[in-house]
Design a protein that fits this description.
single chain; mainly alpha; 78% helix
């Protein structure tokens, strides 16, 4: 298992964001674990979201930008199966030690994880237009 953990942390890279003594445990976990995983998995999240849209809401591409942003948020917050799938893509890249931390406060960390993912997808909404046009 040590090899797996070393490989995972190597692939993810360094922490993203400040971590210091004043940082809460959740903030440390967010910057040391969640942000690098979300960055690493970004292309996959874009593809998964496009697939979700194509399966469930084909007129997404014709919505206004504001409605697209709302759709992204609603899709992740209200579609439990979709949200759980996204969570699995993140949790699958935890080390064993990170998983132990995660299970101690999974509710709060899930909320952080999904909020960060929502903001990440919203900030890249223009990519969903590009996929349609290619």
């Amino acid at each position: 298992m040590e090899t797996r953990d070393l490989n995972i942390t190597h692939w993810r890279g360094e922490s993203i964001g400040a971590v210091n003594e004043q940082s809460s445990n959740d903030e440390k976990f967010q910057n040391q674990t969640l942000r690098p995983i979300l960055k690493l998995q970004n292309d996959l999240f874009i593809a998964v979201f496009n697939n979700h849209v194509n399966k469930h809401k084909n007129d997404f591409y014709s919505l206004s930008v504001e409605k697209k942003l709302q759709f992204i948020e609603n899709a992740i917050q209200k579609d439990i199966k979709f949200r759980n799938s996204l969570k699995g893509m993140v949790i699958g890249l935890f080390t064993l030690a990170e998983y132990e931390v995660y299970i101690q406060n999974s509710s709060a960390l899930n909320k952080r994880m999904m909020n960060m993912l929502i903001e990440r997808l919203k900030s890249q909404v223009q990519l969903f237009e590009t996929v349609l046009n290619n």
